[in-house]
Amino acid sequence: MKSIFISGGCGGFGLAVARVFRNEGYIVGLGDLRPPADESLLCDGITFYELDVTKPESWDAALSEFTKLTGGRLDILDNNAGIIDSATIAESEPARIRAVIDVNALGVTLGARAAYPYLKKTPGSQLINIASIAGCYGIPDVGVYAATKAYVQSMTETLDLEWRRDKIRVLDINPLWAKTPISDVKSKTVTRLGVNLTPDDVAQAIWRAANPENRWDKGRLHWGVGAQDKAARVARNMVPDRVAKLIYQVLST
């Protein structure tokens, strides 16, 4: 049986991903600070491991325990854990700035590092980082969050190159706002673009990305979820910075 370990797995995207992959026959590990509210989920191939993504020793312990169930296999690490702060940079509390950077950027990096030995020895393994379309351009009122998601996109590109020789596939998922606590912020992009995605939409996108239909998709690094975020990435890549600035100014201020 194939296996997937999901950080931040006990809510939002994580639980939705767990259900999709368990229904497809995967052994699923959920890493989080606390078990899911509905502990009846922890049965029939879904197990919980206490995980603080900002601590390397916590990653090592969680993956060591999980892979005891899988015979040492780790087919997919879903680097899902993430938090947000809703404030301008000038208004942000230093402790909250550190927390967002530690979870969203440091946590992704430590997760990739800890998973590498297991992914390396599992044929066809994959690292899936959860980024955001917010990483394409800075967004007022959620600037630290947006910056960490740009970091995740860059880390995906770096690891794709570093791990190519090990035949580990690396990609990231870039949804727009979805119906989770992450979207409960005062950014005007929420009201102007709407919250149109659900955790299930993101989970299905992750499943499709993990099971590409052709060679073109297999080589894609940055995956969208809905029409809005896909269009936003294409536009950002095609237009000059001055135009992108005007677009995001209209959307976010």
From TrEMBL:
InterPro entries membership: NAD(P)-bd_dom_sf, SDR_fam
Family: Belongs to the short-chain dehydrogenases/reductases (SDR) family.
GO terms, molecular function: oxidoreductase activity
Transmembrane intervals: none
Assigned keywords, A-Z: Oxidoreductase
Alphabetical list of Pfam families matching this protein: adh_short
Protein name: SDR family oxidoreductase
Coiled-coil boundaries: none
Top-level lineage group: Bacteria
Species whose genome carries this gene: Corynebacterium striatum
NCBIfam families on file: PRK08267.1
Keyword Oxidoreductase: yes
